[in-house]
């Protein structure tokens, strides 16, 4: 299915949202929960899977939904169709601070591989599927298991990166070593594997995990500085633990310490 040709504009700096302009009868599919706002005249509908094979009967719909279930995503997606006679806009927001990255699949040979939770929305006709790893190291230690998400088609897709985004262009034979959680996605020409860091001190005291991803060119790689798992872990570590006290309240200064720190809530 040929993807719809959509126009877009990304707004904001740290908490971005993408505004997509739809011509009459154009549509965009999005992850459930990413919707922000839309003009009157756009119809919202919940569908099985990604909507790329909705004309193939019940089995096609179930197969599309099953692929999403394997990646740990919701079985349903939301499609937004412009039923008006004029152009209308719909917007989708990033789930946490970071950058929204437009991916023109036509420039990546019709396929882009990404983290399973980075997909935000895409032109209708783009297939959101699964990418099985053929290497044992990736599956056991990669953090994403044997499965990553793949976006296929000839249209636009949008993925989200946490924190600051880095785009790396790898030449033939170039190697980039990355924390496994910091990978946003890469082109299909990039070879991806997971390696053991090695060394007793690194293993016990390094604090960086035991493995890193090795990306070998040629191809394009997107890297994020703040993966959601890292953000969630730091929030959890700083949250009140048992008894409702904040971390640090057991210090000798107690409430006075909070006051000196600028936190004058008692």
Key features of this structure:
266 residues, alpha+beta, six-stranded antiparallel sheet, 16% helix, globular, disordered C terminus
How do the strands and helices of this protein lay out in sequence?
Layout: E1 7-11, E2 17-22, E3 27-31, E4 35-38, E5 42-48, H1 57-70, E6 76-82, E7 88-93, E8 98-104, E9 111-114, E10 119-123, E11 127-132, H2 136-141, E12 147-152, E13 156-162, E14 165-170, E15 175-178, E16 183-187, E17 191-196, H3 200-205, E18 211-216, E19 219-224, H4 228-238, H5 255-260
How would you describe the overall organization of this protein?
The protein has 266 residues and is α+β, with helices and mostly antiparallel strands. The chain is globular, with a radius of gyration of 21 Å. It has helices at residues 57-70, 136-141, 200-205, 228-238, 255-260; strands at 7-11, 17-22, 27-31, 35-38, 42-48, 76-82, 88-93, 98-104, 111-114, 119-123, 127-132, 147-152, 156-162, 165-170, 175-178, 183-187, 191-196, 211-216, 219-224. Mean pLDDT is 79; it is low at 142-146 and 259-266.
